[in-house]
Amino acid sequence: MQNVIMPTYARLPVTFARGEGVWLWDENGNKYLDALAGIAVCGLGHSHPAVTEAISAQAATLLHTSNLYAIDKQMLLAQRLVELAGMSNVFFGNSGAEANEAAFKIARRYGHAKGIDAPEVIVAEGSFHGRTLATLSATGNRKVQAGFEPLVQGFVRVPFGDLEAIETVAHNRPSVVAVLVEPIQGEGGINVPDDGYLPGLRRLCDENGWLLMLDEIQTGSGRTGHWFAWQHQRVMPDVMTLAKGLANGVPISACLAHGEAAGVLTAGTHGSTFGGNPLACSAGLAVIDVIEKEALVARAGVLGERIRNSFTQAFSGTAGVREIRGRGLMIGIELNRACGELVGRAMDAGLLINVTAGNVIRLLPPLVMSEDEADMLVEKLTDVVSIFCAEEEQSA
Length: 396
Prior knowledge:
- The protein is 37% helix and 17% strand.
- The protein is built from twelve helices and 15 strands.
- It has a seven-stranded mixed beta sheet, sandwiched between helices. It has a four-stranded mixed beta sheet with strand order 1-2-3-13.
- A hairpin with a 3-residue loop joins strand 14 (354-356) and strand 15 (360-363).
- The relative contact order is 0.16.
């Protein structure tokens, strides 16, 4: 059969037929423990009854009317999000890249209002913000950008976690109007900055009149043990972007704003045909309800610590494992060499994982994972990684 899908992904040789909780079954009936959750999307696992019910009820009532009219579920979801974040208002899109595009437009319009003709945004090396032209230009990964030049101008890149580099920029680039970073870098390798980083960014932004913009597309919706990763340090941003886990697989994203940033976008300055439609917002409301009812935010913190501690113990003395890091159910295991082949090996063992930054195993399991399932994840992956490392030592 002709492949009618553009080859933008090097897809694995498996097609999933159904899912339940943290488990997926392929079309041949093979069962897999999903430790990736659709790359941090399915925080409630697969086929969660509350999400299914919300989607079904809304689909039977109303799917779309356009943002030319008021949408009750959109208003309700926006209200829940601003209450959870303590922020002011929300723009809804369909993907993380769209949310970040909205953030960039806020930053540029904010800068123009201050008389800056060519506003610039500070971004970080190793970051990932999307694949549209502006978001890939902001992304700190040359592989994502290659072949798409000329890139969008207006981004100043600094090392992630380096406040001194940003201070240097402040002294030399008067056109800077904002900083955009991930509180924890996901695609970059689960890079967790020290606890002083976000407070330092907040201070620098306040001193220079910049907007602090945080990309919480992967870290948000409870994944790190707080609703949003910035809440670990209690550093509220001016702009925050969300997507992935917001509606458990139904496409939706959000760009939240606070303070001066909340009044920047006005009628006619931005929009979205599908953003915040009744179906997606109904799913989003159901996700928030379940997370709150089942106390899954706190559980993510506790279960994540259990998993990291178990891996630390399991890999003690394993020469090929450099570091185990993360926060909540966002976990990275760094090896001393490229390990992309572990994705296939793990799948053969009935486990779905991801490798990012070349040598970092990325784990983003559903928030509903049980302790027994977490222990099974540790056991399965420990076996796969231990064999891989032992083979390398023998061939050295």
